[in-house]
Design goal:
- The protein is α/β, with parallel strands linked by helices.
- Helix content is about 40%, strand content about 25%.
- Strands 1, 2, 3, 4, 5, 6, 7 and 8 form an 8-stranded mixed sheet that branches. Strands 9, 10, 11, 12 and 13 form a 5-stranded antiparallel sheet that branches.
- Helix 2 crosses helix 3 and helix 2 crosses helix 9.
- The longest helix has 29 residues.
- It is globular.
- It binds S-adenosylmethionine.
- S-adenosylmethionine binds next to helix 3, helix 4 and strand 2.
Length: about 325
């Protein structure tokens, strides 16, 4: 579980001091109702909308992006990006997650078209030594990227779902052009989010990209509808989060789909755990995506070391070994 860093949590708490939780909850609800009916972040027009969005969504998107960054660094342990672009940064979530993962970062650029979110992103980065020098630019991401230098790492977190198909295709090419090393694209873990990911993945593999994660291969995705590739991060909800989200359950599961594409091939290609494994007395059963395709592996208890290892597998983990159906 990747929780928000203290400086970010503190800054959000300070910004919400004295504000009505009911008002923030109503704003957050209006925003998420808009998203649920296929909308975008355009209804976020005021500072309090942006804050409500950040309070409700940042813990989850931060956890998802951090999990993706952990997966891509497992595939490329030597990757130490100096520069990053957070495309469609919103409150700056992906930049914060990247700063928490890579101490090498010094050149940080946030791009977004929403004025209220951009202003919030500026306020938040100003309070953290690792991010205070970040550039925060307001404008359409395609225009901003066209004028931006190449970066070691480009991240688009929950952005491409806000674009029409043609814009998405254009943006994918542009992001890849501006990627010096690795591009990470994260989407909601729905069939539609997954579809956007595999379309972008195929488009950029055709341009020479290599998949670092989650796939252990650069071939077509072997999953067949209605199945889709997605992962989850469970995160606890703070008291404030419960209030603003108007929720009762003290945790949430953020489902996400992603692809990390690189100009440099992965050092090792591990298989990926595609669902929560079932741990039984006789065996661990796990759905795996392997270089040879998707299979249901059974790791029998009689193979003690392998069974002990498989008991610790979690959905989304990269795992090594020769697996059979
Ligand atoms: C769902 S939010 C995600 C924010 C942030 N990346 C995160 O993961 O929490 C989508 C963001 O994309 C931005 N966006 C949508 N279309 C854009 C465009 N054409 N140019 C720049 N930003 C855009 C929105 O303003 C919004 O901040």
């Amino acid at each position: 579980m990747n929780g928000l860093p203290d400086s970010l949590r503190g800054a959000l708490a300070r910004l919400s001091e004295g504000l009505s939780r009911r008002e923030l909850a109503e704003r957050a609800k209006a925003i998420s109702d808009g998203y649920r009916s296929g909308g975008t972040s355009k209804p976020i027009t005021e500072a309090h909308d942006a804050l409500a969005y950040a309070l409700v969504r940042m813990p989850a998107t931060y956890a998802a992006v951090s999990a993706c960054l952990t997966a891509l660094t497992a595939a490329r342990p030597d990757f130490a990006p100096v520069s990053i672009v957070d495309a469609g940064a919103g409150p700056g979530t992906a930049a914060w997650a990247a700063a928490g993962t890579f101490s090498s970062l010094s050149d940080i650029l946030l791009l977004d078209t929403n004025a209220a979110l951009t202003e919030l992103a500026r306020t938040l980065v100003a309070g953290d030594a690792r991010l205070s020098h970040a550039g925060v630019r307001l404008g359409d991401v395609r225009q901003s990227l066209a004028n931006a230098p190449t970066s070691d790492l480009v991240i688009a977190s929950y952005l491409i779902g806000e674009l029409e198909e043609r814009q998405r295709t254009e943006l994918a090419d542009l992001m890849w052009e501006r990627t010096g090393d690795t591009l990470l694209v994260v989407e909601t873990g729905t069939p539609a989010g997954y579809r956007r990911i595999i379309e972008l993945r195929a488009q950029l593999i055709a341009k020479g990209a290599h998949v670092l994660a989650p796939c252990p291969h650069d071939g077509a995705c072997p999953l067949v509808a209605p199945d889709w590739c997605h992962f989850a991060q469970r995160l606890p909800r703070s008291r404030d989060h419960l209030k603003v989200k108007d929720a009762e359950v003290p945790f949430e599961d953020e489902k996400f789909s992603y692809v990390a594409l690189s100009r440099v091939p992965a050092e090792a290609r591990a298989s990926r755990v595609l669902a929560p494994p079932r741990v039984g007395k006789a065996a661990v059963a796990a759905k795996l995506c392997t270089p040879q395709g998707v299979l249901s592996a059974e790791i029998a208890r009689r193979d003690k070391p392998a069974y002990a290892q498989a008991r610790r597998w979690r959905w989304g983990d990269a795992v090594s070994g020769d697996f059979v159906d």
